[in-house]
Amino acid sequence: MKALVPETRMNTLVDGFGRKHTYLRISVTDKCNLRCFYCMPLEGIVWKRREELLDFEEIVRVADIFVRKGIDKIRLTGGEPLMRRDLHLLVEMLSKLEGLNTIAMTTNATLLAENAQRLKDAGITQLNISIDSFKQDRFQTLTGRDDLQRVMRGIEEAQRVGFSQIKLNVVAIAGVNEDEIIDFVDYVKDTRMNVRFIEFMPFRDNDWNVERVLTYAEMLKMIGEKFQLVPIETEPSAVAKDFSIVGHSGTVSFITSMSESFCSTCNRIRLTADGSIKSCLFYPAEVSLRDRIRAGATDADIEEMIMYSLGQKPEAHPPAEEIAAEHNRSMIEIGG
Ligand code: SF4
Q: How far away, in angstroms, is 317 Cα from ligand 1 center?
């Protein structure tokens, strides 16, 4: 990875509420080899055809424009990003972008053991691994696949390869996996990993209801009864509330978008696998770049569409019930 570039460029990715955007999440595919019920609608989705997805050159071109306007961190997501063949080649291309300081990825780790080394060599430094249960049968019920052992091997290999940051993303759902919260905290105890408990969020057809949301306050109480939690200072735009635990090297965090939203400091914008800009995770409106790009749009045209999308960005997400009623993309088609 090239040296960090002193921050000379002006960040012009500012929305109508003065929020500077420095973090671009790029979904590289809508395909996944798991079927997590809170992400993939029960009836499934109509997969995009290959030609409907941005190719690597198109992704890098759009990413370059974003980086020149102030983005310094890119996260690759899916579906499952490792379902996209030769993903490490895209990482290599992105790692050449001047001004991009961090390339991260979120994965379900089923294909990680065999890819970890070359992803790290290509330029990925930060890894988020989605895992919601250590119980074989529950994992199979939640994901529709008997792949827990592949995921555990992926986590072990990621640690062996030595990514600078590994986080375990656990979607905490009342009545489903709250009895494993302490197990996850114990699992990272003697590691450098962080476990993040994510409040269950409503997406299209994901069986969400408010009773199933295990809130930050409930989890904090649960963990606090067993461990001594010490808050960790974080950047204003950080989505997670971080804590260290006395006697543990691993840390714990909470993503509280349902009980304590963090929209006022949002620095994130998204590019979907089929080339649309989503200024906000829960805001259905999008700006499609793909067809304009293929029709010969200039960089200036693309910049204009990016700024138009930011101009539409809402101040905050609506209440959860309203989000649940919205006709937004499903989680798997956005990439979180
Ligand atoms: S809901 Fe939208 S505005 Fe709020 S933090 Fe998420 S992406 Fe940002």
A: 6
